[in-house]
Prior knowledge:
By secondary structure, the protein is an alpha+beta fold. 16% of the residues lie in helices and 42% in strands.
Amino acid sequence: MVVFLLLSALLAAVNGQTFHLGKCPSPPVQQEFDVGKYLGRWYEIARLPAAFERGKCPQATYSLLKEGVIKVVNAELLDDGKVDSIEGQATVKDPAQPAILEVTFFNGVPDAPYWVVSTNYTSYAVVYTCSNFFGLFYVDFAWILARSRSLPANMVSQLRGDLELHGVSLRRMTLSDQTGCDAMP
Length: 185
């Protein structure tokens, strides 16, 4: 069992994920979250490493499928100039906590958490996701999103600080490349 855990941790590290010993931090989520105001296009400004993101100009578009179910289309521009995209669904599991969603992109794969930690709906959003493994380690992702392809540096710094105050390690967070994105939809 220990060998399996070590191999799992190593695999996560090799894939560029961020993994940590212990259990997931639990930052508070947006109070009185309004899914309707959150819909639309968001551009990734900064992120923790994610093996599934390989290109530049990353963006996400959210649209309502039905009450409590959101269509998610993530897209990015690859080095060869092609747009890579994937479609999934995010679901509000508890209407009393609409900022805590679960997202899936593949049938048969467990849903992943998607927590909207903070947003003002018109310029920025902070999203966090974390999964515990065997109570020994966790893998997390965090994104700073914007309605435009850039955010002022002081705003990015403030949003990072808000997450770090709640125990989220952002040592490996990097800025996303949002230049030369004319080929994006």
